[in-house]
Design brief:
Blueprint: E1 2-5, H1 13-18, H2 26-40, E2 46-49, H3 58-64, E3 68-72, E4 87-91, E5 93-98, E6 101-106, E7 121-124, E8 137-139, E9 150-151, H4 152-161, H5 177-183
Parallel strand pairs: 1-2, 2-3, 3-4, 6-7, 7-8
Antiparallel strand pairs: 1-9, 5-6
Amino acid sequence: MIFFTADTHFDHFNIIGYCQRPFSGLDEMNEALIAGWNAAVGPDDTIYHLGDFARRRPEYFLRRLNGRKHLIIGSHDEDLLRLGAYFVEQTPLKETTIQGQRLVMCHYAMRVWAGSHHGSWLLYGHSHGNLPPVGKSWDVGVDVNNFRPLSWGDIKEIMASRPDTDPAEDQSGERTAQAGTRRQGAAPRLTR
């Protein structure tokens, strides 16, 4: 099976208050996140972590978590870069196809992404639920997904409920002035 998550922030005390996580302290949060991960992800499953894994002690957590781990590098993952042995890959952006569906993964949300106008999906983190998805995009961070990874089946179900909105359109369905201008072939004016 294939799973996706982001923004676990293991051992990051301030994230509890910042994101209003329902934990009384680090031990409770860390153990709840580990339990949720391992309840979903088996030892031979694939899991994509879309960044911001741990504040401290990343090896301690990596040893305790199931799955073949892929890291999409986030804004707080400097310590993980030296721990390549724990990951199948470490990359800032991943484009892949799963069961015929084109998928783009990045720690940061994008309003347009590779293939966004042609049916590809975007998974992201970083925003902790504070940035609404556009079109076929979704925040896979733990703060908006019951503190557990999402399966590929979960993602397909979520995307089935998401609009096919072209990301170049605003919420009213009107093309933005900038998008309309670019579609007509006008080059942006550059100033120095």
